[in-house]
Amino acid sequence: MTIATDPETQGWFQRNRMIITPLMFLLPGVLFFAIYVIIPIFQSFYISTYEWNGLGDLSEQGEFVGLDNYRELMTDRAFEVSLWNNVKWLALYLLAIPGGLFIALFLNQTIVGIRLYKSLFFFPFVISQVVVGLVFSWFYLPREGLLNGFLGLFGAGPVNVLGDPTLATYGIIAAGLWPQTAYCMILYLTGLNAVDPEQIEAARLDGARGRRMLWHVILPQLRPATFIAFVVTIIGALRSFDLISIMTNGGPFGSTRVLSFYMFEKALSEYGFRMGYGSAIAVILFLIMLVFIGYFLWSMWRDERDARR
Amino acid sequence: MLKKLTSAAVALTMTTGLSGPAFAEAHSELEGTLRIISDMSNPAPRAVMEGMAAEFDAMHPNLTVELDIVDREAWKSQIRNALSANPPDVVNWYAANRMEPYVDSGLFMDITDWWDAGDYEGLESVKGAMTMDGKQWGIPYTYYQWGVYYREDIFNELGLEEPETFEQEIANCQAILDSGRKCYTIGTKFLWTAGGWFDYLNMRTNGFDHHMALARGELSWTEDEGVRQTFENWRTLIDMGAFIDDHQTYSWQEALPFMVNGEAAAYLMGNFVVPQLRDAGLGDDQIDFYQFPAINPDVAMGEDAPTDTFHVASGAQNVEAAREFLKYVTSAEVQTEINGPDGLGQLPVNANASVADDEFIQQGFTMLSENATGGIAQFFDRDFPAEMASIGMEGLQEFMVFPDNLDDILARLESARERIYE
What we know:
The complex is a heterodimer. By secondary structure, chain A is mostly helical. Chain A contains 16 helices and two strands. Chain A has a domain at 76-131 and 168-273: MetI-like fold (Orthogonal Bundle), CATH 1.10.3720.10. Chain A has a two-stranded antiparallel sheet with strand order 1-2. By secondary structure, chain B is α/β, with parallel strands linked by helices. Chain B folds into two domains: 2-143 and 306-363, D-Maltodextrin-Binding Protein, domain 2 (3-Layer(aba) Sandwich); 146-304 and 385-421, Periplasmic binding protein-like II (D-Maltodextrin-Binding Protein, domain 2). Chain B has a six-stranded mixed sheet. The longest helix of chain B is centred in the N-terminal third of the chain and has 17 residues, at 43-59. The radius of gyration of chain B is 22 Å and the shape is globular. Chain B starts with a strand and ends with a helix. Chains A and B meet through loops of A and helix 4, helix 5 and helix 18 of B. Chain A: It is a multi-pass membrane protein.
């Protein structure tokens, strides 16, 4: 900076502006993050040690019960079901990543109208989850639904996907995969734009093609896109709520609940007045998420460190 | 969605034939603002609520009524926030145990004094539903009967009579099944409809007092023989295939077409089903109503008749106006008007009000006043504590789909009972 003058004549703010300016820019974000995310996390821990109906003041109406809520969770079968459903969501939701990659590779070509095809494939991500849920619940309807009409052509069925406790969760996950695959696809499409054509050329000269080309040349270059796809899919799987609420409302007999839905039911729904218990579920969900978030943060930090070297 | 009512709106919404000024002379000293949050969001109830607010506003020139109508389903979870911070003066809610969390937390005002002062003449018979811990916490404004609504034309076609005993009910059902139809439509996706069946089967099998003791947590779900017998009776119907298939997938509205199309012959439901059936194209010669038949001849008939209510928030600013409004709502004239065929089409809570000239309301009134000697219950999810109701109805739904799981279900309900009632 050539315009810099003698530091002695500058004010305090001028001298420290390189530190103060970023701090000022960060302040609103940090403030809101603290108020709406960090502090509530600790409040949840605190409330989870109380039996409180959420009405009136916690210090007056609440009763301190220590870890009783967590002890009860250990024996609560509905909690166990919800936890397992979360695991199913996590595992099956990841199918969106290879699915998205496949569609992206397929659409990554220059033919007439490709933009239209791309937007059609992206469409399910744009529409609201509520609409997706409704569309799929009509699709699954036991008598009028398209699915059973289709199965009927082959003499199979009818199945009541959302009414069968063993199938319902899978039915909802399938509905969730529809928009999530579109999301992963768009991530990969942008990633494919950044793939270095020279490397592909070089690989081709060396005789790589097909699967080997994909695995050894394309995919390594898509690593940033894959990372983001993992992050959004895992977080998406853990916070699944709207589809469940729309499609089955947690039923039949609670077989499609996940932790976030169960927490809502226990603490905030029509019949839910157990803030402490709901908070305990939230804490467990938070700890599960923390494993993934910790891993993501660590790997981002590692990448940045490597990049700086 | 704030709906402010000024006297200009009065002319539009006035549907009642009451002479407002007659009231006004006596009570015109009310001042300030009366804030009401109502959950009467369906078209007909909404018009009734807006009409009442407008008329009350007109009766008290110095008082402004501020009415806010919230979606009925949304209100069930919003009420706690509404009552906690900057509460309104008057809110809608439900009677019996549904009041408990708000009574326990001191969010509803104790209005025992107003009851004792004779504000609510003619409401003696419904006082019990508003009572908790020996005090009154609000006032009812409407209630409706439950019962079996059936396709009269199908019954005529098969030559069936309205059943009075469970044996007749089963014989009817068999005839209906033989004609290729289902006996009952039901949609249990949101669970409570199954609660209605349990209420009736248990009240008929073991009587009203047993049912209430169960609701209070005094009886064991696993040990009590009566409870087992109730499920046994229910199972008879389930094993016959009396209920429509896949009911766990439907809401109660989605189950209506089965009855409208003639695939099912009857629906155990509240009287609010009648307008829906009429709108769907069924004439009054096609729908009729009968009281749920007796099962155990030794017990008196108990009935479900859910009551909807008004309460004063304990943080209310304008208590005087709220008191006057409650008195206004329960007066015989207003009761006749708002529960009439142009209003809610339900039963008035005031004994001095007249009952609308409607086939179903009249039958319901006769049934509740003459043949409900066992007692009048609110409904499964209003009589049982909230958490017990939610776990219980889930179990009932499971039983209707997998009756073989009964032991497991009852064990679950029993462990919930031991924890919830302590």
